[in-house]
Specification:
The protein is of the alpha/beta class. It is built from 15 helices and 13 strands. Helix 1 packs across helix 12 and helix 2 packs parallel to helix 12. The longest helix is centred in the last third of the chain and has 22 residues. The protein starts with a strand and ends with a helix. 46% of the residues are buried.
Length: 349
Amino acid sequence: MIYFNNDYAEGCHEKVLQALNETNLVQTPGYGEDDYCRRAGEKIRALCAAPEAAVHFLVGGTQANLTVIDAALRPHQGALCAVSGHINVHETGAVEATGHKVLTVPSDDGKITAAQVAAVVEAHRADASFEHTVQPKLVYISNPTELGTLYTLAELEELSKVCHGLGLYLFLDGARLGYGLAAKGNDVTMPDLARLCDVFYIGGTKVGALFGEAVVIPNPVLAEDFRYLIKQHGGMLAKGRLLGVQFDALMSDGLYFEIAARADALADRLRDTMAELGVPFLVPGVTNQLFPILPDSVLDTLSEQYVFCEQQRVDETHRAVRFCTSWATREAHVEALCRDLRRLLVGQF
């Protein structure tokens, strides 16, 4: 079988593995207080043009999300996100388990707008019984979103302006951040994220690392006592140097962006083939995730050789599915899928 169902099916990039092997017997302090974590943090701060930002390394995305949100919110406050937001649909109530409600707004493309944020907050404040309901305090967004779409710089500027004008924190989930930053047409940079967000994270698990996410906190209010929250939520890895070594390698010589760009280019090859064949998409995209709408008969045949994710049924005979490339996707596998799509889709659209 050929796997296109996610971007974490393989282990890690060879340069990351080489760095782990070369440092394997080096003795270091524990819990992320080693020179590798320090050096990786310095590289991240430099890339973000944020010399004062705090940088912490956690094992996975759900752990990063629940730790950040719990650190930011008081008990009566909640996190606002698109209905498709990862914290709402794919984290088994992890945020709610910390005592904070996830507040959702509708979205067709995975994004949330500044106008939606303003409307929710203003409605809450205008309610005479506001203290009986959860107070919106943090806005959670993903970039790329769960549907592979991207925020533009103008959209992030407006979100940041509204959030900070209303006294809310802006938190960006960057589990696939590399694929977004490397995508064609993207106009958002790492310094932009550090300038506009109170906190965000750089995903490693899905972009070349064995595991790990780098949480970047430009807002000093959220940085205070953050390590206490990491420990309380089981995220303080005794062998924390394993995270530092990986991010030190990923952030060296542009590796993180290079491998992400490769995955995007392979996804574009699939996207172009599908477009040539007239395949409609659930949402337009430019990153490593594609959401084509295909006939059931074609999908059933493809499933004999390829693994992909079911997204949703569109009508009685068509389903939207997800194909996902990664930093490690083989060109030969992409070419094979393109050939099979051409063979199966002739005359379908």
